[in-house]
Fold:
Amino acid sequence: MVTDSKPTAVEATRSDSKVNEYEREPVPKNAQKGAGKFWGMYAGEHAAGTEFMIGPLFLLAGVSLQNIVWGLLLGNLMAVLSWRYVCVPIATKARYTLYHHLEKIAGKWLVLLYNLANGLLFCFLAGAMITVSATAVGIPFDMTMPTTDDWLPNSAMFVVVVLAVGLVIAIVASLGYDTVAKFANIASPWMVLVFLACGIVAFKQLGAGSWEELNSIWTESIVFAQDGESESTMGFWSVFLFAWFCNAAMHVGMADLSVFRFAKKASAGWATSAGMYVGHYMAWVAAAFMLAAQIKLNQDANPVPGPMANNVVGLAGVICVVVAGWTTANPTIYRAGLAFQAMAQTIFPNVSRFWATFTAGLIATIAGAFPAFAWQLLGFVGLYGTILAPMGGVIFFDWYVRRKGDVAAFHDSAPHTSFSVPVLLAWLIPVVPAFYLIVYQGYTAVNFVLPCWLITGVLYLVLSRKPSAS
Amino acid sequence: MNTMLRIIGWLGLVLTLVPSLLFLFDAISIESLKLAMTIGMVVWFSVAIIRNRLEPATD
Structure:
């Protein structure tokens, strides 16, 4: 989120309900923004409630400190480069939203199907954010915190708190969340500093005077968390791929075409480094240190964000967990609602955004009552990328191979069809087997993102060759 | 007025981060750190809300 108090067109692409500018036309020159707008937006957006979960989950997965440091450094670099050289160049030339761009290639009905998948996945992601917020809200009520063994709701109080948090978020998102977007802009710099402070305090509490000592304490924390074992389920490449592809739907998946269509130059893509190195590096490492400190001081390996933040910085940390979860769950539910509304309107033209968003909020709230979604966040984020990012492969190969980057011809072109079977097949042929292997055979989700993206792109070219020639 | 509020707001952010550095170098206790960060939070959000309300008037 940007730190200005007034919503801008750039923010609008992410959030604002009223300013749906240039949805079906290229963004004109006078509406284009300098890179500065994007730096603040990405730094704030990636300091989210779920960052409090991801760092500790690395510790529980037994990732060595060295692999975290280098894996995140290089993986995040690849993510930034993916934005800068895959997504943003197309965004600043075509200047369309993802949906309008995809509609020209795949037809409006296939875009609606993509929207449905997008909306459902957003709901589960928002559910994890609601769980995170609930762990902080539940502290004054002496709520029994869920543990990693709890895949189902662990107490009636937990369900009540999740319902309360989820319903507030759902109602606010349904009413249109200009106020929350404003509040998120205000909270953003403060949240980033609280994350940093949490990391510094937790580091101090670990009491390490050197890298060797820190490494030793870290290993002891893993052994404690794994009940005497020291088994790593994620090595360097897993961390590297996770950092690269946890936002795959946004960069190689092209969702951020909708954001960067407002950028004056493709160099604005470097702004994503603020999100990656503040949110996905500093915040993840800080959150991981928080769990290590909790293990050292309290012999408690439960990675529940509310109490962890309370242990290190007190009330400011608790509020930060609530705010970070709330301000990020809200736009996520809003986006899911828009996707559902677009789907529903094809059958019931009068479906309102309020009810579509409220339905999305209810699904997210129900998902939030199941802590499994929060505990399985590493796998879920990979699955999310595996399903959605391949559509970006279609856009990439279409742009560079079929259209040779001809902007004018692309703007003048009309969709060949309202439902492109070649695009559907190109999407499903790699993604369905990948989904089976991930969900039913337990393979690591992030490993499938790049292969699925490439196969979808190449299959699209092969399957759509004939219509193109005719 | 706006400049003064902005400075006070920045002080709220200073109170959010600096105590953790002081704690790192053993200059303050964890209790003082938590109190200072809570004050910093209240200052930052209070000033932001006031600035937000004043904004239409200054426009």
In short: Chain A is about 70% helix and 0% strand. The two ends of chain A are 45 Å apart (CA to CA). Chain A touches chain B at residues 5, 182, 186-187, 189-190, 193-194, 196-198, 200-201, 203-204, 313-317, 319 (CB under 8 Å).
